[in-house]
Specification:
Elements lengths: L2 H14 L7 H6 L17 H10 L4 E4 L2 E4 L4 H27 L5 E6 L14 E7 L4 H14 L13 E8 L15 H7 L2 E5 L3 H7 L25 H8 L4 H15 L2 H6 L6 E3 L3 E4 L5 H15 L2
Parallel strand pairs: 4-5
Antiparallel strand pairs: 1-2, 3-4, 3-6, 5-8, 7-8
């Protein structure tokens, strides 16, 4: 089996683990390689070449209504269309709360992440957000947002999961490269980073993309999501300007850090900085108790062994 065939199968295997069939253009965009960007010299990675190769893999791949999937998984087409409609409603909810988040003066970008980022949520899925924050304001921003959302009673465990807003990943503006959070064997991570959707952005998202060019090592054709205007949230400069003149923010940052470390649940303290599930430092605040990456990698490897060899 040639390299392009292997990459197509691995790409479809990865998305099959998430019950998500792909169009021809999506296979090209998310074509996955483990050869560190050396894949597909010349025209081997062209859309036409992928389409031709798909025809040669008819014993392993099926197609319906413009979507491609692993053989026997045609039911995913109907599922994808249904989940798109659910995702539209959840994106509207995300946008509503991002309009609140943007009012914090230290917030530079708010991104929809995980399944909602590519329109593949369940009815009971929550909304996962990642936030880029001004340098030395991670803890204060998190405290303000967690406090605010607690009062609104929309945090996980306060409300039905389908209505929850999960703020569990904060990134400092001077530490935009996320490669240090990747496991050595981690098929999910490049896709995850590439699929971040900036709903509110003061202009820093382009720097985020530049800092994470390592993604192209695994996804050489990938490009960032370009959100249409109806889904974007604009800036609110007046509130930010007023709040920047209030108080000694360095003092409040230290106080916010001390307070949050003190009240942090014991299970998170035990997991803190043991691996990249729960990361607490000056670059990131990442609280992902239930990180699926290792389980996904195990299933991915099993399917690759069976279908690719």
């Amino acid at each position: 089996m040639n390299e392009i065939s292997q990459s197509i199968l691995k790409t479809l295997i990865y998305f099959d683990l998430h019950d998500y069939p792909l169009t021809l253009m999506e296979i090209w965009k998310w074509l996955y390689t483990e050869r560190h960007g050396a894949l597909l010299a010349g025209t081997a990675g062209s859309v036409m070449d992928i389409e031709r190769t798909l025809g040669q893999l008819s014993d392993k791949i099926g197609s319906k209504d413009g979507f491609y999937f692993l053989s026997g998984r045609q039911a995913l087409v109907k599922l994808r269309l249904a989940r798109y409609n659910i995702s539209e409603q959840k994106f509207k909810r995300a946008r509503k709360f991002i309009r609140i988040i943007r009012l914090i003066p230290f917030v530079r970008c708010v991104m929809v992440v995980n399944r909602l980022a590519y329109g593949n949520v369940h009815q009971d899925s929550d909304v996962d957000l990642a936030v880029i924050v001004q340098k030395n304001r991670l803890w204060l921003t998190r405290l303000l947002l967690i406090g605010w959302f607690s009062l609104l009673r929309v945090r996980p465990k306060q409300i039905a999961r389908s209505q929850a807003i999960d703020l569990s990943f904060f990134i400092s503006e001077d530490s935009l490269n996320l490669l240090s959070l990747k496991y050595p064997q981690d098929v999910l991570f490049p896709f995850w980073v590439n699929q971040f959707v900036p709903v509110y952005d003061d202009g820093i998202f382009k720097d985020f993309i530049k800092a994470n060019q390592w993604v192209k090592t695994y996804l050489p054709n990938a490009f960032p999501y370009r959100l249409n205007e109806r889904r974007q949230v604009g800036e609110s400069q007046l509130v930010k300007r007023v709040m920047r003149f209030i108080g000694d923010w360095d003092f409040w940052e230290k106080l916010a850090k001390s307070y949050q470390l003190k009240i942090m649940p014991q299970d998170l303290k035990a997991m803190m900085n043991q691996d990249s599930r729960v990361v607490v430092n000056e670059k990131f605040l990442k609280f992902h108790r239930h990180d699926s990456r290792r389980a996904v990698q195990e299933k991915f490897d099993e399917s690759v062994s069976r279908l690719v060899g």
